[in-house]
What we know:
Elements: H1 9-17, H2 22-35, E1 47-49, E2 56-58, E3 65-67, E4 70-72, H3 78-123, H4 128-147, H5 156-177
Antiparallel strand pairs: 1-2, 3-4
Amino acid sequence: MIREWKLTDKETEQVTSRGGNVVEAQKAKKQAYLAAGGNMTEQCSREVYSGDSFFGHQCTKKVMVEREGKHYCKIHDPEYILGKNRKKQEEWEKAWAAKQVRRAEEKKDRELASAAIEACKKINPSNPMAVAKGMGEIVEALKKISKGEGRYSLDRLTHASNTIEDMQDVAIEALKSVDSPSVV
């Protein structure tokens, strides 16, 4: 069997006459052969295992590369395996980082919920849920109060008194929504 990647006798003589290393020349010729798309007929040197046996056997795939004097098919090529492992590691690290961000957000949400519950309990210890449900009304009442609008009167003092009374009514109605008799 002729192996195109092997040095011929003539090539071996040329290498030795120039004082070169025959092993290195052989490796270089084999790599050039593979780079040109050549197909080696030797088997991969990797030991593989079948699912039904405890004993390994040599991979039956054809050699595609030589690394450190050993022949490998594309699947068992150490550089290919390293690249594949790097890609998996990068994907795992991205997923882990996303998981850590999600966990941090969930922790903040739990802390916020806990703080809100404690605040509702301080306002109305007997019914904190009423406070939570009435927050929308309280916010709307505060918006009305901040505008300072009330029943209009040409007399400034009457107008001020009307506005204060109207704002008190708005606040009382909002506080009723949280069911807090101690505040009203």
